[in-house]
Amino acid sequence: MTDIRSVVRGVGSYLPARALTNADLAQIVDTSDEWIVQRTGIRERHIAADNELTSDLALHAARAALADAGMDAGDIDLIVLATSTPDNTFPATAVSVQAGLGITRGAAFDLQAVCSGFVFAVATADSFLKSGAFKRALVIGAETFSRILDWSDRTTCVLFGDGAGALVLEGVAAQDAGGRGVLTTHLRSDGRHKNKLYVDGGVSSTKTVGFLRMEGREVFRHAVGMITDVIVDAFEATGESAQTIDWFVPHQANRRIIDASAAKLGIASEKVVVTVDRHGNTSAASIPLALATAHADGRIKTGDLVLLEAMGGGFTWGSALIRW
Ligand code: UT7
């Protein structure tokens, strides 16, 4: 069997037009810009319009990624869309994106691993491309978390936002990839922690959508250790290190978790891509949003070694190391 690499061809993102600042939130709940910035680093988040669905955000991001790749939608034969806030219970939001792009071949499906969704989706698409089953994939993270927030709960509503990001991956014979591509992925989950970050409704349990509930301190307590474990796995699998990576693009949940993880791993602060201040925690969308920003502003370039990680509800956590 030919050795295949999943090479990044393009990246794109989308944030809804409406920005909600910390000052705006202080009008809704008992909070302050100072508290939110000091505890999380978040300054504003974006909120989807009433008629804007997760698939609409995803479509914008997918089109931007295709344009960046110089590809047409017809080149894509696989869509893996990570979301915890799908348009409907079914069908998958991915098929709305597929139809919106006019794609009638290949496969499209959703994947649910909450904030780790994008890393899980990269790993999934990478496996399919490496197997030769599909040739070019859109890997999307898209969320409308504003729809599952309890806007009277200050401990959660200040943290999350809406957005989408997408990556185009192409399966290329390893000898033609020039060392580029997804080098390794490491996925973990541990359901014993499922009640620390969850939504208190669902199809089978309450027949309602429910609201996000979180034991923030407990999530924080586990986050850094879980994140650093899967990054050490990635380094051990590849022989790379904190010194050899060019960019660290973590899940954008909280500035303090990002800084503590980078410090524990010995990753220099100038290699860390941080965009959480501009969009808050957008769950599965946060990594591709950060990737798109750092690619567009010229930081991430072809040949750079890019480390992704995420941790979230489940708990789920994972890492991916990519030669861009
Ligand atoms: O992808 C994973 C997603 N989740 C996360 O990343 C969350 C991880 N956890 C965290 O980031 C932090 O735990 C939080 C930012 C959620 C909270 O920070 P903390 O330093 O752990 O605060 P805390 O929960 O210990 O609360 C400290 C105080 C409490 O008041 P008292 O009991 O000390 O009087 C809270 O009621 O801060 C209060 N508080 C707030 N005050 C102003 C909680 N939320 C707010 C708020 N504004 N929005």
Question: How is this structure best described in words?
Answer:
- Pathway: Lipid metabolism; fatty acid biosynthesis.
- It is found in: Cytoplasm.
- With 324 residues, this protein is α/β, with parallel strands linked by helices.
- It folds into 2 domains: 4-176, 3-Layer(aba) Sandwich (Peroxisomal Thiolase, Chain A, domain 1); 181-323, Thiolase/Chalcone synthase (Peroxisomal Thiolase, Chain A, domain 1).
- 32% of the residues lie in helices and 26% in strands.
- It contains 10 helices and 13 strands.
- The protein has helices at residues 22-26, 33-40, 54-69, 93-100, 117-131, 154-157, 216-238, 255-265, 276-279, 286-296; strands at 4-14, 18-21, 44-47, 78-82, 107-111, 136-144, 162-173, 181-189, 197-199, 212-214, 247-250, 305-312, 316-323.
- Helix 7 runs parallel beside helix 8 (255-265).
- The protein is globular and about 60 Å long.
- Oxa(dethia)-CoA (UT7) binds next to helix 2, helix 6, helix 7 and strand 12.
